[in-house]
Specification:
- The chain is mainly alpha-helical.
- The chain has one domain.
- Helix content is about 80%, strand content about 0%.
- Helix 1 packs antiparallel against helix 2.
- The longest helix is centred in the N-terminal third of the chain and has 18 residues.
Length: about 80
């Protein structure tokens, strides 16, 4: 994403989210990994100009982090949400 390969980054983050949900759903602290991946997806969507969709994912990341009590991820998600204001 940092070098402008947005389509490739989009495919990778989609794969990462699917793998996290599929392969680690029963592990401890999945919320930490899942909320982070979803925040990255939100940032990627914003970079592509998809503001409404990006905002939706940023709030989803926040809710997942809250559900798991992932304090640091909650703070990060709130910072990402501030990007949309």
């Amino acid at each position: 994403m940092r070098i402008g390969k947005l389509e490739e980054a989009s495919k990778l983050i989609r794969l990462a989210i699917n793998n996290i949900r599929k392969n680690t759903s029963k592990e401890s602290y999945i919320e930490v990994r899942e909320s982070y991946a979803i925040m990255i997806k939100a940032i990627l969507l914003r970079t592509r100009g998809e503001e409404a969709e990006a905002k939706k994912y940023a709030y989803e990341a926040l809710e997942i982090a809250k559900k798991g009590g992932a304090v640091f991820r909650i703070k990060q998600a709130k910072e990402v949400i501030k990007l949309f204001q």
